[in-house]
Amino acid sequence: MSNVLMVRHGQASFGAANYDKLSTLGHQQARWLGDYYRVQGLRFDHVFVGEQVRHRETAESLCTAFEGTVEPFQVHAGLNEFDFKAVIAAYQAKSANQQVLEGMTPREFFKLLRKAMLAWMSNELDPSHHPDFQETWTDFTGRVLAAAEVIGQAARNGRVLVVSSGGVMSTLMAHVLDCPNESIIDINLQVKNTAQITYQATSGGFKLTGFNATPHLESSERSEFITYS
């Protein structure tokens, strides 16, 4: 049985001035997932979230489905998504790519993000390329694995719900499966909003038990509400 359920945040505000908040649909996706957990009889002994607004809002909307009290959220900075705007800005400065993010289609944006992430993972970017770029790939993966260690400890005493972002979730999954860095990008771009990646946390580490599941969105009435941003 899985004792760690990692959930990607609901649909955020892609294309808006502030991406870091849920859309109306994002809140609904989270409520549907909470309803699904309630019907399945799932309760959580620990709830971890990142510091970003979309993580907290997802957890709050999800937990409205539960009757009675819910354990206070445990906030861990290691669950924060990487600063994709800074990574892209550094890549653009290095490569003289001056595409404007505003107005991009999701397909155009993710194509640019893939190139930027590959450069980041290869240690080709540094703060001299852009002042907002401060976190190396090694720093990012280090904090993700540190958060996983804390979550693994908590899972020894019950079931854990984690709300984070695609970059964090795909990085941990690739580490668990010992995949090359390049696969992280492919995993990341597949993870749906409010999809879950599940693990069995043991003394020997995490074992993957499920990937990208959205049982709360699989009906014919809801399949149109599956999103990726």
UniProtKB/TrEMBL annotation:
Give UniProt keywords alphabetically.
Answer: Hydrolase
Pfam families in alphabetical order: His_Phos_1 (PF00300)
Tell me which SUPFAM superfamilies the record gives: Phosphoglycerate mutase-like
UniProt superkingdom: Bacteria
Q: Which residues form a coiled coil?
A: none
Q: Which SMART domains match?
A: PGAM
Which molecular-function annotations from GO does this UniProt entry contain?
Answer: hydrolase activity
Q: Known CDD domains for this protein?
A: HP_PGM_like
Descriptive protein name? Histidine phosphatase family protein
Q: Which organism is it from?
A: Marinibactrum halimedae
Q: What does the record give as the organism's lineage?
A: Bacteria, Pseudomonadati, Pseudomonadota, Gammaproteobacteria, Cellvibrionales
